[in-house]
Amino acid sequence: MTDDSIDPLYAAAHPAPLTDVTLYSAPMIIPVTGPVILDGAVAVSGARVVHVGTRRWVLDALRQDMAPHARLEERHWHGVITPGLINAHTHLQYTDMADVGQGSYSSFHDWELGFDRVYETLGDGSWKASAERGARMMVEAGTTAAADIVTDAEAAGALAAEGMHGVAYWEVMNWRNDDWRTVGLGRLVEHLDRMRRIDLPSVGISPHAPYTLETGPFVDLPDIARQLDMRLHIHLAETPMEAGEREATLSTYSTASWRDDDWASYQQLKDAGKGASAIQFLDQLGSLGPDVHIAHGVWADAEDRRILRQRGVGVALCPRSNRITVTGKDAPIREYLEEGNLLAVGTDSLSSSPSLDVLDDAAMLYDLAREQGYTRDDLTHRIIRMLTLGGAQELGMHVGAGRIGQINAGATADLAFFDIPVYVATPRGIEDTLDVLVRHGAGTNRATVISGRVVYNDRAW
Ligand SMILES: [Zn+2]
Prior knowledge:
This protein is of the alpha/beta class. The protein folds into two domains: about 5-85 and about 405-455, Urease, subunit C, domain 1 (Roll); about 90-395, Alpha-Beta Barrel (TIM Barrel), CATH 3.20.20.140. Helix content is about 40%, strand content about 20%. The chain is built from 17 helices and 16 strands. Strands 1, 2, 3, 4, 5, 14, 15 and 16 form an eight-stranded mixed beta sheet that branches. It has a four-stranded parallel beta sheet with strand order 6-7-8-9, sandwiched between helices. α15 packs across α16 (about 380-395) and α15 packs across α17. The radius of gyration is 23 Å and the shape is globular. The two termini are about 40 Å apart. The protein binds zinc ion. The site of zinc ion (ZN) has 5 residues, from loops. InterPro entries: Amidohydro-rel (IPR006680), Metal-dep_hydrolase_composite (IPR011059), Metal_Hydrolase (IPR032466), MTA/SAH_deaminase (IPR050287). It holds the Pfam family Amidohydro_1.
């Protein structure tokens, strides 16, 4: 009987003996899909997790699973092991634009002008290396997957260059209704075809924002993405001009103003005094859905947040970027948490953020949530979920083959190793350890494993 003839169902219940296993053990493991494990271990074979549990239990289970002369190598880590972190919003190609991110600006438009000045001086030929430097920074910070927006095609391979997971979203911006149909659509097809031919692991589409695209592209792009089974990622509710101007009640109102009018753009809708938010505008166009996640979501009122939940749209919060680009306020983090919106964390790019370490944003989210009056004791747990499973969900990668953002049998073996003090003597000590990870974990990653391969190791073992 050859391997091909084995029934997959039988094989799942009676796996072939393992011949080569790496055991990552640590005083604390955070699987995310299960409770924190003390004196834990993760057994990895090939690109996948085989077992996770207490070290004692995993070794016991392996004794049953392993072939007689199989190789078992243990790598013990003295800190915390988590799933590889997920950066839910970035533009890796702008890594070399850190000067822009270090400037100070009087308004969002002022930041845009600063951005454009430097973008033009860099130009063609510089984006590939810049994007790859960014991907390397992420790997060193324990990030193993990202939602990466690609504006210039040469930057598209950055995630793949480091073996990272996630989606490279082709950005579409600056099209009016007339030139979109005559020129824009053709350009899009050209670029997507090129990205497909260089064999990127996953490609998506990013319609930029309601202030750089008129209605036509915002109707067509989601349709095209959905026909191709691609995901969508949009900058939305980032700037003050995207805020609604109505009492935040159910938007049946805005449905009525669409019966007799096809609005050419969000601007036109605003000029007509309709007062709909940018989220309500895109919702009316059918652009939102569970295959979409948005970046920022700063100007989202109660009705906007309800629409996002109703459509299954997640938000990538980028609190540091919002301050640098002067979005005018912080995201309503307390409300998002209390109401139960799907959330993840993004750094945005170095052109609007001091680092590509999502734990820097996690620390700021913690403080902002408390300042905004979020008092529940689950805050660190919620933020850990945002950094892992939440990000995976926003990328459509939280279930099924190749799932990420979690440590469990069969999941992709993406791991990060944080060098923080671990207290396990009491439940309070365990909570304190999680607290330290979320609030002071930035810069403490010492090793990164992607698909079972060690891609970064700063003398961790
Ligand atoms: Zn962005």
